[in-house]
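Sample intake sheet
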Amino acid sequence: MISVVIPTYNRAELTKRAALSVLSQTYKDLELIIVDDGSTDNTADVVASLNDSRVHYIYQENSGACVARNNGIEHAVGEFIAFHDSDDVWHVDKLEKQMAVLQEKNADVVFCRMNKMRDGKKVGTISDYFKEGFLGRNILPMAIGTQTLIGKSEVFKANRFDPDMPRFQEFETLVRIQKNHSIYCMDESLVDYILQDDSISMNPKKFLQAWNLLLSKHPDFLTVYADSRDRIACDVMKNAFFTKDKKMRHEIISMAFKFKKSPRMVYRLLKYKFL
């Protein structure tokens, strides 16, 4: 059995769409755990209308998506756990294809790519720079969507999501998992990621807080992922321009200097630092 966990908050109709994309899977041996993070809309009624014995509804006081996912993990009884988001859609054969790979490769965790969708049209792909196969210990497990993950139950029960992380929750969880378990990338997009206007990804303060916390939790991060440091520095540098606050912009650029590796990247960072 696969236990599928969906956290949701005030997204009743979107949650229904996401849930139906789970219940219509070609892989039928599953339970769907919907964790309502204190919604004030009609989420409970919508979930009840699904009328499927495989659906389990859990209500909790508003505590955030990480706590909701951990609550779902706590109640999961399947040998495997997969995660979904309330506003996205799975392809009908996602679980069947991932389970085949997970068992064939004897992997601990498997993820796939995602299609970025806006107004019903594909506008890009997420995780397309990973190659098919196992991630090496020094391969940065970044930009891997939670809704693409499936793995052995014991892996996620031992590695819960950190509710103190304001961003990068799945990234930080995978950094921990990667230390002791195998992660396999599928070269196929099996999830439609629906772009929303209420994303926190443009919040520079949370971006900075998340990186500081991640580095404090993983002192060996810069050494383990040394080959990815310039890539991270570039990403951090770009995020500096999501804010008009000059002080915060310079704080984020200073964070980028922690990651830089090549002399060329130093030049690029200095160029932007003094704009």
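Comment: The mean pLDDT is 91. The radius of gyration is 19 Å.
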